[in-house]
Specification:
The chain contains eight helices and eight strands, in the order H-H-E-E-E-E-E-E-E-H-H-H-H-E-H-H. It has about 325 residues and is an alpha+beta fold. The protein is rod-shaped and about 205 Å long. This is Band 7 domain-containing protein. InterPro entries: Band_7, Band_7/SPFH_dom_sf. It comes from Octopus vulgaris. Keywords: Coiled coil, Membrane, Transmembrane, Transmembrane helix.
């Protein structure tokens, strides 16, 4: 080291002051050029696009730069935006629907700045972060506007129509901010808990009605079958009752006819007893005759209490002939 310093001192002592100044100037020029080159070259990634901004002159170029190594004025910087669609989320947005019911939902969208309007966007919003803040407000306003056009029931029944309306309104608002949208996703629509319970109860009732309507033809067939069975059973019972009634009627008529014939014969027999052509009984004799018949028809012993006559032999007694027997003349 001491040797190299000594050699340098010897060389410089031999060089003229002008040569030394030129050497120093050359070294400084090379250093300045290297510094300027280093500060004048920037690289953009594949997913980036940017505009060159000169910090010294405060001037923003018009044409966007894409991926690769770019040369610009010394000390310049890139104001970078994504060159691919980015996802913007709106979580837990609470809005009032057409019925005045609070709805909470999550919405997400994919957006990208319009490249031909990058300079305008940078002048209005400074950078990508500034654009995202404004897009947050614009998207929230679009969601509120779309919510006000739907009833509570339509959030469930016309969910796709609601998503399309949100996309239309958001595209209009984002386009005014020089931003494109590719798609919209609406997720996790939440309604008030009491309303959710009412909706679930309504859905259960609707399902029960649907099941009842589906079961109605089957139940009607079963009911008609039971009615037909009941009618058949009643007809059978009625026919049995009619048949039994006819049999009873015939039996009653036969019994009545037999009884009538019996009494007719009995009347003829009694008439024969009283008639002059027959036994010609008197009334007292007829009563004695009837008493004897009654007593003889008894199956049990008959006890009769009567006073003993003073002269039993004085009682006239006449043995009546058997019934239905005509006395000989």
């Amino acid at each position: 080291m001491a040797f190299s310093i000594t050699a340098f001192q010897v060389r410089t002592s031999r060089m003229s002051p002008k040569a030394i100044a030129l050497c120093i100037g050359a070294v400084m020029a090379v250093a300045i050029i290297a510094t300027l080159l280093a500060t004048s070259m920037k690289k953009l990634q594949t997913y980036e696009v940017g505009l060159i901004y000169n910090k010294i002159t405060k001037r923003l170029q018009d044409n966007p730069k894409f991926e690769g190594l770019h040369l610009g004025p010394p000390g310049f910087t890139f104001i970078i935006f994504p060159n691919v669609y980015q996802t913007k989320t709106f979580n837990g947005i609470m809005c009032l629907n057409q019925n005045g019911v609070r709805i909470i939902l999550d919405v997400s969208c994919q957006f990208k700045v319009q490249l031909h309007s990058m300079k305008k966007v940078i002048k209005e919003f400074k950078d990508f972060d500034g654009l995202k803040r404004v897009l947050q407000y614009a998207g929230t306003a679009a969601i509120h506007e779309a919510c006000s056009n739907f009833t509570t029931a339509e959030f469930q029944e016309r969910r796709e129509a609601f998503r399309k309306l949100v996309q239309e309104i958001m595209e209009f608002r984002f386009n005014a901010l020089n931003t494109d949208i590719s798609s919209i996703q609406v997720n996790n629509i939440r309604r008030p808990q009491p309303y959710e319970k009412a909706i679930r109860a309504k859905e259960r009732a609707r399902e029960d009605i649907l099941v009842a309507r589906q079961e109605q033809p089957k139940q009607l067939i079963e009911a008609e079958t039971k009615v037909k069975e009941a009618i058949a059973i009643s007809n059978i019972t009625l026919e049995k009752a009619k048949s039994r009634a006819r049999i009873k009627k015939k039996q009653a008529e036969s019994e009545a006819s037999a009884i009538l014939i019996q009494y007719q014969k009995e009347a003829e027999s009694l008439q024969n007893v009283l008639s002059p052509e027959g036994l010609n009984y008197t009334n007292d004799e007829f009563l004695q005759y009837m008493a004897i018949r009654i007593i003889s028809s008894l199956n049990n012993t008959l006890y009769v209490g009567m006073n003993f006559p003073e002269n039993p032999y004085s009682i006239p007694f006449r043995r009546p002939p058997p019934p239905n027997v005509t006395p000989k003349k």
